[in-house]
Write a structure and sequence with these properties.
The protein has 386 residues and is an alpha/beta fold. The chain is 22% helix and 31% strand. The protein contains nine helices and 32 strands. The strands form eight sheets. It has an eight-stranded mixed β-sheet with strand order 16-17-20-23-26-29-30-31. Strands 5-4-1-8-13-10-14 form a seven-stranded mixed β-sheet, sandwiched between helices. It has a five-stranded mixed β-sheet with strand order 18-21-24-27-32, with no helix packed on it. Strand 29 and strand 30 form a beta hairpin. The protein is elongated and about 70 Å long.
Length: 386
């Protein structure tokens, strides 16, 4: 069995995180989501993995390389082109179109292949899913989950007969139009013949085009409903909730990194905590090289990325701070995600640093205790020119 990870999308619903990161690189417990997927595939003996990339492709390729550190083989298919000026322009081909390109280039899909979206945490029993796929003689199988009716418009909806055969596939229908509340989880098992149905040289999507085609042709196309954990990071709100669940230990097989030095408190290497007046209520992770000054209050679940600096009197409540975040003195962050120049609350409301109090947070690599103002920038430029 081989695997294909879909990683070419822009992840617009997870902005601002995806301004600088492709969606599969969004970290959970400090590790990209896609790394968990690759580790899970390896656990089931799947070691040949293709990844289609486009937007910020270099971030994925530089981190994973050819897969040696995961004891797998990883290949990449870039979707885009380079201009005459040397500019790399991403141009995704659609989830199915990207697979067709890979097949035409080197014939990768010559065996049963599991296809996964690169932005979800799963603990699917792949062996059992493959057994059912083959027992039913399926050409294609979709792993499904039941979701509340008010969530169906975010997913591809699967309509089946009594034997689990898919008779209709609705891509993100309105709640009123949805004929089922069983949805695709973005995990598919394909036989090589499925790739033959994808047209060559055009954008083509799995959910909105390939699946309706399979259903229309009456091919052996089945849904599998399985009991497993599937955590989809579809939005910033989903990401915040996922981080909260993981830090609380509610997701199996995901364990806090670092060393536990107190009840509910884990730290990375070389952290500095001034305990005078400081209160930490776990679960809390403090990344390596992070400095916590006196009088700080931290309420978990909270994740503080490496190289950060929490100044005296600051308060963090159920928040996620990416690496190198400085929270300035006496600032309170409640249920927030802070990522470089942006903050996002648990409801997904995003603010740029220019829209917030200038004494809220800054880059911890900057030695100043306050953020540079416009006047500071002008003065600096005058000194340089002099």
């Amino acid at each position: 069995m081989k695997a294909m990870i879909l990683a070419a999308g822009k992840g617009t619903r997870v902005r601002p995180l995806t301004y600088d990161l492709p969606k599969p690189m969004i970290p959970i417990l400090g590790k990209p989501v896609m790394a968990y997927l690759i580790e899970h595939l390896h656990k089931y003996g799947v070691t040949e993995i293709m990844v289609n990339v486009s937007y910020l492709h270099e971030k994925i390729e530089e981190y994973f390389g050819e897969g040696h550190q995961f004891d797998v083989q990883i290949g990449y298919s870039f979707e885009g082109y380079t201009t005459d000026d040397g500019e790399v322009v991403p141009q995704p081909l659609g989830s199915a179109g990207g697979m067709k390109k890979i097949q035409e280039f080197g014939g990768f899909f010559d065996d049963t292949t599991i296809v996964l979206c690169g932005d979800a945490l799963i603990d699917l029993d792949i062996k059992s899913a493959l057994f059912e796929h083959r027992r039913k003689g399926a050409l294609a199988s979709v792993i499904t989950k039941e979701v509340p009716w008010d969530k169906v418009s975010s997913y591809g909806v699967v309509v089946t007969d009594g034997d689990g055969r898919i008779t209709e596939f609705q891509e993100k229908p309105s709640q009123q139009d949805a004929k089922s509340n069983f949805v695709s989880t973005g995990i598919y098992i394909f036989e090589p013949e499925v790739i033959d149905l994808i047209p060559s040289g055009q954008v083509f999507d799995i959910g909105s085009e390939l699946f309706p085609l399979l259903a229309e042709k009456g091919l052996p196309f089945y849904a599998q409903t399985r009991n497993y954990n599937w955590i989809d990071i579809g939005s910033v709100s989903d990401y915040w909730e996922t981080c909260q669940s993981v830090l609380m230990g509610e997701v199996a097989n995901l364990h806090m990194p670092g060393i536990q030095i107190n009840d509910g408190l884990w730290v990375g290497l070389n952290t500095s905590i001034d305990w005078e007046g400081t209160r930490i209520e776990g679960p809390v992770y403090i990344g390596s090289g992070t400095r916590i000054e006196a009088g700080v209050r931290i309420v978990g679940p909270t994740w503080i990325g490496h190289g950060s600096h929490i100044c005296a009197g600051a308060e963090l409540v159920r928040s996620v701070l990416f690496e190198y975040t400085r929270v300035l003195p006496n600032v309170s962050l409640n249920e927030m995600i802070v990522f470089k120049d942006y903050s996002v609350d648990r409801c997904g409301e995003m603010k740029h640093v220019s829209e917030t109090d200038p004494d809220s947070w800054a880059n911890a690599r900057d030695r100043r205790s306050k953020r540079r103002t416009a006047q500071d920038t002008v003065l600096t430029k005058k000194r340089i020119s002099a």
